[in-house]
């Protein structure tokens, strides 16, 4: 175990470092942790988050039982409040409240965002809390004209974040993007067909 502590120790526990040493990756990861992992939200991360429509939120119970829940919404539904804070309106769902119950006992949380189109993934470690009965904050975070019932707010404080390489990420396109491209293609085809029809009337038979 390294004598000096690093921000990345949140992810690289002594057991993780021992396995890295045994499997030969400790030296390269030690260089990365000395350079320093990012602990604040940067402008490029702000841009990345602003266009995302989906992410996974992981929590754990008091005794460590993990739980992952999907969160989705229109682009921008996950908001950056400052250089250490994310927040989103938590929409009413199946009303199991496992995430909220976990956070009541254990504030540690993790956000995983994957962009299939650009084959990029972001990992954020931190803590989270649920804010109930704050109508002003909820209204500020609720996406405009989105058909969902907001129930509460979840605020995520970033402790550490990192990126993954694109290896093994399948490249996928959202249905909405496909529909838009197809609609634009069909519109262009219709324009060209109309143009051809007009030109035919100008050419003697």
Number of structurally distinct domains: 3
Portion in strands = 25-35%
- Name the CATH architecture of the largest domain: Roll
The gyration radius over C-alpha positions equals 23 Å
Total strands: the figure is 7
**Helix count, DSSP H or I runs of 4 or more residues:** 6
Shape: extended
Low-confidence regions: none
Percent helix range: 25-40%
Report the structural category: alpha+beta
CATH topology of the largest domain: Pnp Oxidase, Chain A
CATH class of the largest domain: Mainly Beta
- Summarize the helix and strand pattern as letters: HHHEEEEHEEHEH
**Amino-to-carboxy terminus distance:** 87 Å
Index terms:
single chain; seven-stranded antiparallel beta sheet; 35% helix; alpha+beta
Please, could you describe this protein's structure?
The protein is α+β, with helices and mostly antiparallel strands and 205 residues long. The chain has 3 domains: 1-36, no CATH class; 38-164, Pnp Oxidase, Chain A (Roll); 173-205. It is built from 6 helices and 7 strands; from the N terminus they run αααββββαββαβα. The protein has a 7-stranded antiparallel β-sheet. The longest helix has 28 residues, at 175-202.
């Amino acid at each position: 175990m390294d004598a000096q502590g690093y921000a990345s120790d949140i992810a690289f526990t002594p057991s993780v470092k021992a396995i890295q040493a045994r499997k030969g990756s400790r030296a390269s990861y030690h260089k990365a942790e000395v350079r320093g992992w990012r602990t604040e939200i940067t402008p490029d991360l702000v841009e990345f988050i602003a266009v995302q429509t989906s992410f996974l939120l992981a929590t754990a119970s008091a005794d460590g039982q993990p739980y992952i829940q999907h969160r989705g919404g229109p682009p921008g539904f996950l908001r950056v409040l400052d250089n250490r804070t994310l927040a989103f309106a938590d929409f009413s769902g199946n009303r199991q409240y496992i995430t909220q119950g976990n956070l009541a006992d254990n504030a540690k949380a993790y956000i995983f965002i994957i962009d299939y189109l650009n084959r990029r993934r972001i990992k954020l470690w931190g803590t989270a809390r649920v804010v109930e009965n704050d109508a002003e904050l909820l209204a500020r975070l609720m996406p405009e004209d989105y058909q969902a019932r907001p129930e509460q707010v979840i605020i995520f404080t970033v402790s550490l974040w990192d990126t993954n390489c694109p290896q093994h990420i399948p490249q996928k396109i959202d249905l909405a993007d496909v529909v838009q491209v197809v609609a634009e293609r069909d519109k262009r085809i219709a324009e060209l067909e109309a143009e051809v029809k007009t030109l035919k009337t100008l050419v003697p038979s």
